[in-house]
Amino acid sequence: MQAATPPRQLIADVSGFVGRRAEIAALDALLTDPGSAVTVVAISGTAGVGKTALAVHWAHQAADHFPDGHLYLNLRGFDPTGQPLSTTQAVRALLDAFDVPPQRIPATIEGQLALYRSILSGRRMLLVLDNARSAEQVRPLLPGTASCSTVVTSRNDLFGLIAGEGAHPLVLDLMPATDARDLIAGRIGAGRVAAEPAAVDLIVERCARLPLALAVVAARAATHPRFGLAAVADELSVARGSLDSFGSEDLTTDLRAVISWSYVQLSPDGAGLFRLLGGHPGPDVTVPAAASTAGSGAGPARRLLSELAATNLVTEHTPGRYHLHDLLRSYASELAGAGDPREQRAAVVRMLDHYLHTAHRAALILNPYRHPIALEPAASGVTPEPLAGYPRALAWLTAERPVLLAAVRLAADTGLDRHAWQLAWTMTTFLDRRGHWHDWLALSRAAVEAADRLPDPQGQAYAHRGLGLAHFRLNQYEPAQAELSTAIGLFAARGDASGQAHAELDLSWTYERVGRHRDALAHARRSLDLHTAADDLPGQARALNSIGWFAGLLDDQSTALAYCRRAHALFQQLGDPVGQAATLDSIGYANHRLGDYGEAAGCYRRAVAMFREAGDRYHEAQSLANLGDTLLAAADTGGAHHEWRIALRILEELGHPDAQRLRHRLAVPVS
């Protein structure tokens, strides 16, 4: 198998990490000692106890022991505003970290996991799976090879992982008092700590030796060097409260005291942005999104995020992307809930408008020939991102994919159903090209439900079409046909000929996949008529080629050539190289069936070159296989085997079932 690109590295090391010397030594002994048989360590402990800080700090410290790299993945097991990462989402994130081309990624979750493990096989790598909900969430993601090590963090004990997978447990308790004092000293200076030892002991006690609480208090003291530590300790006593997410009453009281006390020291605008971020779905937010959420410019938003970062209320985990610890997000949500509901609702609408209008721009850059939707104007104060050019649009969608998925769920949960189905629409081309078909299926189901609740016939039509296409990509042809038929009826009822035409053509391919070629041809002809009436040239080109292909399957090669040549000329006029390659493949098939093997081979070779140039590996393999068939028919058995071997290598890398058919062909000896 071709080697994958080295993975992206971990998030930045934890600045000022102090303590946990015994745990660091234990991790060294367990995962870097050549005599150790341990490959998985499960770090558990209460929220805010420093599990992530320990895992990431140790991973950087031990980097030389893992020469093939290390991966970090937040499984979001206890995120208060979102669902834990599913196996499908997690394995795709890990494959994306290796820059695996979408064409190589199998459609099934089983195939994706097999590809992931094959990439890791034999490599000396470290995997950090952070914030796991359960052993069941982690188990499918374990590398399954002794050459790789895994560190898992969770608030739960992950007993199933320990019992079933041999993971070694490492339980983090509250910080030892000495380490807690060292943490404070590392943030504010040893001199201040030595000058007021009694006050430091009181701070440590009132923070319950919880690292998150200690870090926030230390940040407060560091930003006010003239404050005495005794005054800081006294303020902690005054600001006592509770966070419901803690099970221990003492920890609950102390942590809320720390966060609430830090919050009240913010500027009014900083406090306002912190409250508004409680309504953001996460997992992180950028400066432009925060600016739109607040209805401010990018400059003020950047300054306010810097203020929040300076007090440890947010973390800039990568340049320009800010994360709220889940406890802090819970607190911000509570504050927002206690405020003016109209203010918070308006902020959520602005935030969703920001993502909707920016994602809409990105979607039309990726595919300018999409059947468009009409957006309502963005709310006042929203500034969508410009996204100049294809690479920028693709990069934005890649970075924001987890946020956009969460935004659809948030919109549906808060009754903003128009945002829900339209956001789902904006992501379909991206999810399709990147192979995130399970995400596409989930979003499309949410979009259908949202459009039905409105009710919005336009939204229902788009949502059912999206759901049908997602089923189609996952080889679920019967539900695909049902959803696409529903979409056709909805588009027709609205008098939307273009939408109906697109859905008819989509439906035609579901019939082709199950061998009903006459039905496929009928729907493709209907699509051409509708596209022609709507003066939609890209749609006409796609329909013409489909008609030609289906005619060829029905052994009407003269009709096939006539329609495919018209399609090829139209794709040339439009400047669409992938469309040209597809029609050349269809023309090659018709010439093969007519016995003109030289012409067929020439068409296939041109199609292969164009698919290869476009990075469309699956269709490159298909045309190579077809070229091999033509060469075999022309009595060039050696040439046929050569092309089939190249096609087989591609299909094996893609994990595609068509590979088995080529293995059977190659089993025939060369004469």
TrEMBL record:
Entry superkingdom: Bacteria
Orc1-like AAA ATPase domain residues: 17-138
Listed InterPro entries: AAA_16, P-loop_NTPase, TPR-like_helical_dom_sf, TPR_rpt
SUPFAM superfamilies in alphabetical order: P-loop containing nucleoside triphosphate hydrolases, TPR-like
Gene3D superfamilies with a match to the protein in the record: P-loop containing nucleotide triphosphate hydrolases (3.40.50.300), Tetratricopeptide repeat domain (1.25.40.10)
PANTHER family: HTH-TYPE TRANSCRIPTIONAL REGULATOR RV0890C-RELATED, REGULATOR-RELATED
Protein name: AAA family ATPase
Organism in which the protein naturally occurs: Dactylosporangium cerinum
Taxonomic placement: Bacteria, Bacillati, Actinomycetota, Actinomycetes, Micromonosporales
